Amino acid sequence: MNIIDSHKLQIILKESSETLSFLQSVLPQDDLSSELAGYEISKLLKKQKQLEKEYAQLVQIRTSLTGIQNKKQLIEIQNKIVEVASNLKESTKKLCRLFKENPDIESDSAKVQRDRREFMKMIELLIQMVQNGSIHKFFNMTTQELEEQDKLRKLIQMEKELCNDIKQLQVDRLNETKEYEQEQVEINLKIQTFKEKLLYKKNRAYAKNSYREKEKRSEESTDFRTFDIEQKHIQDQIKNLQNKIDTENQVFQELKDFLVKKEEQARLSSDEWEKKTQILKLKLEEKIEILNKEKEKCTEELIKLRQWQEEIEEERQRIERLEIKEAKQKEENQLNLIRIDNALKLIQQEYIEWKEQGGGKKKSKGKKKK
User: Fold this and answer.
1) Which pLDDT score, from 0 to 100, does residue 370 have?
2) Which segments of the protein form a coiled coil according to its record (predicted)?
């Protein structure tokens, strides 16, 4: 950069610095409406935090209430959750409207003054660098700041994305709340239906039980009447049986007396029979002794007869052996005769055949040649 251009740049930068200094000396005016809006916003923020805390506590209590015994408390907590969610939604809408209508002027003015001071410092630094001829350092510093600003833009973009995600989560929460409310309505309808069915079944069961109770009572009265009739019949049977028992006892007593008499007679007759049996026993013993003696004699005779029979059997076997031997000898002689006869016949037949073939004739001698 030449001297003229650097001089022009210095003049422009000095004028800009003086203008910024003059603007800094101008004080911002106080705005009463902005203070009131800030008070209202802070009040709504406190209320918003309280509602969020209450909503979280109610949700935690709802998760801990399980079982039929806590059904009533669960319904109350659900109603409170719906009410708090509605209030939270209204509070969020009010905050958004207030932030849109009343921006933060004090913070904005402070930021403007801070940026202005920094900009003035940068201008003074640039003037010094132009005077010293080291403007390339300013270029490097500017490039570095631009890179940092690029990082800042990325962070801002990430913040926007996070805000969008938060909004989406809020929308999802509202949708889930609506779905939950719809499910609660359906569950309440089902509960009402089940209650009606239960009431119908209870009434029906009560009617059935009443009918059965009346039926059982009628059956019971019928059973009592039947029991009375059977009881009378049984009493009559008992009387008849008692009469029969008396008759049987009388008959038994008479039979007993009769049997006692018969027993006495039998005892007397048994004594007589015992005496007779003793006499018969003695006679039989004598007969047995005689028979035993005869048995011994017969046994001796039997032994002799058995010996004689054995001798006869041995003689018979000896004779049979001799007869068998003679028969075998006779058969052998007959076989020998048959063999001799067959041999003679064979010799005779062979002799005849030999004769027929010219055996025994002399052969004629042939004439001698002269």
Assistant:
1) 36
2) 152-186, 231-332
